[in-house]
Structure formats: C-alpha cells, structure tokens
Amino acid sequence: MLMAHPAVLTSLIEQYETLRLLLAEDGSPEVRRRMDDVAYTLCVTTGTRDVDAALVAARHRLPGARPQDDSVLTV
C-alpha cells in the first residue's frame, strides 16, 4: 500500500478539524461538502472506511507516534 507523506496527513487532519468546528458554528452545505471531501481523502490515504478510523490511522503514521499506543481504545 502506498503511504501518504506525513505533511499531507497533517494537512488533512488540520483541515478536517477546522471544518468540523466550522460545521458546528455554521452548518452550511458548502462546509459540509468540503468536510465530506476531506473525510473521503483521509479514508483513501489511510486505507480505512470511516473518518474516525482514518484520523486514528493518520495520527499513528505521523512522526513521533507510538505504534503500540492504545490510548484511543476504551475499556
């Protein structure tokens, strides 16, 4: 599988988080459409099927991530 460059992943994560805040404030169709586009791109670049898994996978591929980090798992 091809791996996205960390700079691309960082940018996608930042875009998604910004758009999520904008959607909460605004809720416009344009913001929602852009957020869906970024979510899709995150899923494609990480090989996942939902945005939550894509965000976790993207963060684990960034420099400094701990491969054995299970802090996102609930007990």
Plain-language structure description:
- The chain has 75 residues and is mainly α.
- It is 64% helix and 0% strand.
- It contains three helices and no strands.
- It has helices at 6-25, 29-46, 51-60.
- The longest helix is centred in the first third of the chain and has 20 residues, at 6-25.
- The radius of gyration is 13 Å and the shape is elongated.
- The model has no long low-confidence stretch (mean pLDDT 88).
Structural features:
mainly alpha
Envelope shape: elongated
Q: How is the main sheet built?
A: none
Number of helices: 3
Strand content: under 5%
Unreliable residue stretches = none
Category by helix and strand content: mainly alpha
Rg estimate, integer Å: 13 Å
Average pLDDT, all residues: 88
Q: Helices and strands, in N-to-C order? A: HHH
Number of strands: 0
Indicate the percent of residues in helices: 55-70%
End-to-end Cα distance, whole Å, is 31 Å
Question: Can I get a quick summary?
Answer:
By secondary structure, the protein is an all-alpha fold.
Furnish the topology, listing elements before pairings.
Layout: H1 6-25, H2 29-46, H3 51-60
